[in-house]
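Annex B. Sample input.
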Amino acid sequence: MTEGSHGPEVFRGKTTVKEILEVAIGFERAALKFYSELVPKVSKRIRFLVEELAEEEMEHVRLFSELAARPDIVSAIATEINRTAADSQFSDCLHVPNLGDHPDDQAVLQYAMGREHAAMLHYTELARTAPEGPVRDTFIFLAKEETEHKTELEKIYYELIHRGGGV
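Annex B, continued. Sample output.
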């Protein structure tokens, strides 16, 4: 701790852009694998949604992988930034639940909403603290995208679970 340090950032510590990208790629790969394996197990009511989630996660893996490989990112890769308050919740999502061979629609939707929420918080905070440039721009884009995904999942959840209807 440095003299005069205040606030929660003191307890979070620092990390590098490289580490953040590695964790983010792992987060997205875990989700891609989870949703891809879930597709044949879920009810027909939400199969389209789980397929879409898998496609979105594949796109995020591609986006982060391309970003990490860009020559203009190499100079920023060692830049240290504060860990986010949502860092541990985000990292916890690397471990996916076992929902069984016939997962309940509600359990799938609740997990997906929680995962999108964790990503939204994490990417939003990273967008505020990352150095200006393509890394920050990527986190801004992903924070917006995760927010939209969460909102859409909440609408579907309401329709299916609370109203008992179709999507």
